[in-house]
Specification:
The complex is a heterotrimer of chains A (115), B (382) and C (228). Chain B is α+β, with helices and mostly antiparallel strands and 382 residues long. Chain B has helices at residues 4-13, 17-52, 73-81, 116-119, 167-170, 178-185, 209-215, 225-266, 269-277, 282-313, 319-325, 338-369, 372-377, and strands spanning 58-64, 67-69, 71-72, 86-92, 94-99, 102-108, 130-133, 145-149, 153-161, 173-176, 191-192, 194-199, 220-224. Chain C has one domain (4-227): P-loop containing nucleotide triphosphate hydrolases (Rossmann fold, 3-Layer(aba) Sandwich). The relative contact order of chain C is 0.20. Classes of the chains: A mainly alpha (115), B alpha+beta (382), C alpha/beta (228).
Chain lengths: 115, 382, 228
């Protein structure tokens, strides 16, 4: 075997190795990009659609978030600290004029009530 | 395959192999940590936004002086359908009930309208006295039963579980027969909790709200999909603040890396002087330095980002969610949005690589204007 | 083909720590011809190394010019002078070899940026090592060499690219008589191939030189021609 007086061949091999490692890492990124839980996404969307779910179950805090939906008069214990509730003050000072669908508010005196 | 200059640049790394290896490992881990910190909230937001596209455009609720109240189904559906832009109206039977470990979301499910793809995932829909529970609902004393408390307290037979991978939305759900649901929350027959409304065009969500309100003879409150997304995003902001704080140590580590790298590079003035004395131009030296740094930084960046991707998007990767949000029992499945992930990758690359690579060019640029003799003499000052 | 190096009114001064100025070279005018070996002698500390560094473009003169082929290279910007130095080989007084590299790799250094293949660089470098008698040490790290062997390695590095200009500062230091003669033969051989060879040395005797050189003496900043 020819003796080696330098480490340049080893250097060439070293570049090959790091190129290979980089390609493998890029391939993993590409695979994850293309195939990130597609079936999971589709299944979840089917359930959301079927059940007409409006909000995710989970907020970052790990607690359940649901809009303060219906909890009829018989259930007055919307006591979860993590859910927005209609406060007593709001109940006491409940003015229909202050409640309006969505973000629109009618001018006072133009309440869109119908018989 | 590689030019002589590139091979020489790698040979130069082998002069201090352990230093180079240590720098590479440090960079890889720092990039992986910072990448994960930046990618995770983005992944959560992108995933929620993706999934929320399947949610109803508007949810309409009736309210009175006491708060929310049920609405009569036939009349409400008829009225809503008269509003221009409304495509479908679905009554929802749902409420909040007490389970063994806290509040649960109870939903009455109808057989009609169930997609085929879902039917195959379940044994069957629940009959009276039966429930299907989400992944995060803990059954009661007996593994097969669940006690729920609404207007009444009742035990139900658990016949199935919702798929684990849908947990982001189904974590706390209890699906039951509509009659059981009504009984549990005292919802009269012919009434629904609220209406889920879909509109023809995404942009019409806000536009038809006033028409919807005007169509009903009692006060209503609507929440749009956009508002739901906003609620989720505002909750995420708190997590982002935490991320920003945890990134600080990583940035400090990076500053130290840059300082060490710069000092090391400046100490190479004598070597660069010898190279210039033997005919290397400033351009040759800059290319040499660039290859030298890229051989360390580029694979470190790629492997580090790969690690971030695996930790956030990889199957079974849950410790990040546990660390940030305490999601011990929720297996997160995050979906990649290309622009979102690409933004994070670019941010990480700019934050981490640019200073490190720039620090290596300083001696070459300094040498461009220095006398070669002075550069060589700099050996003693290292 | 080069006609030689000319310096006109070349002066180099340094500012000392106490803000005093020390003039090392004082308006030196000389022509160093191609095809002849020029020897610069003088006592220690007279500025032989400074003159060599200035002629090689490693440092700028305070005033005056260094001309090559009617071009004032001393006025060129750094990048141009760097590129010109590809035609030059320099043997430093203190060798200035790169630690952590082998002997062969040190000799290869001037060839790397020229775009040659690795095998061509190796082959040329091995030839140069053979000419200085260091082929057996090609794979050794330079830190394992003696002073004389380091000087020979520096010489091999200087001649590896068949330069048109060779600047050798004390090329025979640390060498025995036989090796000294060998080094001077090598330099003379290059001079005969029409290179400009300038040697700075304070301990050379003329009868050890292979051929008639141009001899200068540098003293008190002034360069005087002794023998032509």
């Amino acid at each position: 075997m020819k003796p080696s007086y330098d480490r340049l061949d080893k250097s060439g091999q070293g570049i090959l190795v790091i190129a290979l490692v980089s390609f493998i890492a890029l391939a993993v990124i590409a695979i994850l990009s293309v195939q990130t839980h597609r079936d999971s996404q589709q299944t979840t969307q089917l359930w959301i659609n079927y059940l007409a779910l409006q909000t995710p179950a989970i907020v970052p805090s790990g607690h359940v978030l649901r809009n303060s939906g219906y909890a009829g008069p018989a259930i007055d214990r919307r006591h979860s600290p993590h859910l927005p509730v209609m406060s007593l003050m709001q109940l006491a000072d409940f003015s229909l004029e202050n409640e309006m669908a969505g973000s629109l508010k009618p001018a006072r005196g133009e309440m869109p009530l119908k018989d | 395959m590689f030019s002589t200059l590139q091979i020489w640049a790698f040979r130069d790394l082998l002069r201090r192999p352990y230093e180079s290896l240590l720098l590479g490992i440090t960079l890889t881990l720092t990039i992986a940590i910072v990448g994960t910190l930046l990618l995770f909230p983005r992944a959560v937001q992108d995933t929620l936004n993706t999934l929320l596209k399947a949610s109803p455009s508007i949810v309409l609720r009736r309210f009175d002086a006491a708060g929310f109240c049920p609405l009569p189904v036939p009349a409400s559906v008829r009225v809503a359908q008269t509003v221009v832009g409304v495509v479908s109206v679905r009554p929802r039977i749902w409420g909040l009930v007490n389970g063994p470990d806290g509040l649960l979301t109870m939903v009455g499910v109808q057989k009609e309208g169930m997609p085929e793809g879902l039917a195959s995932q379940l044994t069957r829909l629940p009959e009276r006295g039966e429930v299907i529970i989400g992944f995060g609902v803990v059954a009661g004393q007996s593994a097969g039963t669940l006690q729920l408390e609404g207007v009444i307290r009742q035990n139900y037979q658990v016949i199935d579980r919702l798929p684990e991978k849908t947990s982001l939305f189904t974590h706390d759900l209890v699906l039951m027969n509509p009659e059981d649901a009504r009984q549990l929350i005292s919802l009269p027959k012919g009434y629904a909790s609220d209406l889920a409304i879909d509109v023809f065009h995404e942009g019409e969500q806000d536009a038809i709200l006033s028409d919807l309100a005007a169509a009903f003879s009692w006060p209503v409150r609507c929440v749009t999909r956009r508002q739901s997304q906003g609620i989720s995003a505002s909750r995420l902001n708190r997590a982002r603040t935490l991320v920003a704080i945890t990134v600080i140590p990583a940035v400090l580590a990076l500053c130290l890396l840059v300082a060490v790298n710069t000092r090391k590079s400046m100490g190479r003035q004598s070597d660069l002087g010898i190279m210039k004395a033997t005919g290397w131009t400033t351009g040759d030296i800059i290319r040499f330095q660039m290859y030298r740094e890229l051989f360390v930084c580029l694979p470190s960046a790629v492997v580090g980002i790969c690690l971030s991707f695996v930790l956030v998007y990889g199957p079974g990767a849950s410790w990040v969610a546990d660390f940030f949000f305490g999601w011990k029992t929720i297996p997160p499945s995050f979906y990649l949005e290309t622009t979102g992930a690409a933004t994070v990758v670019l941010e990480v690359a700019a934050l981490m690589l640019v200073p490190v690579i720039a620090s290596a060019f300083l001696p070459a640029l300094k040498g461009a204007t220095s006398d070669v003799h002075d550069m060589i003499k700099g050996a003693g000052r290292r | 083909m080069t006609s030689g190096i000319t310096c006109r009114d070349l002066s180099v001064s340094f500012t000392l720590g106490n803000k005093k100025k020390r003039t090392v070279l004082d308006k030196i005018t000389a022509v160093f011809q191609a095809g002849k070996m020029s020897i610069i002698t003088g006592p220690v500390g007279t500025g032989k190394t400074t003159l060599l560094n200035t002629l090689a473009g490693l440092t700028r003169p305070t005033s005056g010019e260094v001309m090559v082929n009617d071009q004032a290279i001393s006025r060129w910007t750094g990048p141009h002078r760097d590129r010109w130095r590809r035609q030059a080989g320099i043997v430093f007084q203190h060798d200035h070899l790169v630690h952590d590299l082998t002997v062969l790799e040190n000799v290869m250094l001037p060839l790397i940026p020229l775009g040659h293949t690795l095998s061509a660089c190796r082959s040329q470098s091995m030839d140069a090592l053979e000419r200085v008698g260091l082929l057996n040490h090609a794979g050794n790290p330079v830190t394992s060499l003696s002073g004389g062997e380091r000087k020979k390695t520096a010489m091999a590095r200087a001649i590896v690219n068949q330069p048109d200009f060779i600047f050798a500062d004390e090329p025979t230091s640390h060498l025995d008589a036989e090796s000294s003669r060998q080094m001077m033969d090598l330099l003379y051989h290059h001079a005969c191939r029409n290179a400009v060879v300038i040697v700075a040395a304070h301990g050379l005797t003329l009868d050890t030189l292979p051929g008639p050189p141009l001899c200068y003496r540098l003293e008190h900043g002034v360069l005087n021609l002794l023998i032509s």
